[in-house]
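Note to self: keep these together.
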Amino acid sequence: MGYIYYGSNSIKYINKHHYTAWKGVEDQLVINNIDNCNFKKGDKIQPLTLIAAPNQTREETAKLQSATIKYTTDSEKVFAYEVCDYLVTANFNHEPTIASATCELTKTINIYPGETHIANGKVERILNLKEYRSDYIAPIKKMAIEPDTNIHIIAVNNTVIVKNG
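Structure:
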């Protein structure tokens, strides 16, 4: 099992029973170890997000992590990643949320349903998210993009509309 994580203080593996590997189901994996952290009243900790990659070796997980795109969002309770061509989102707000998710422009981008703005070397996706829910969205198309591109893309079903600026 592979894990890609963001916002963890550290990982801690606790081998409780010292069985051979195939019987080690009682061991513990602490994904966000806070043993050596000091918190004061009013402190906010960084959110922990985790992408599980079943049946992946360490090498496969490392390759997957290097290919994963982490978006910056305008809501501290919304997270977005591009993993294996899927747009993976999580909305921890208790109401439907429209959020902006931004990442660096790459030579080829996936086009997902909804709105995408490309300008100044950035990709901005407008996410229309249901309350307190995660989702994954398959791309409709792939597009090769020049670095100085300034376009607005709207994708609905299998139709993609592209207009300048």
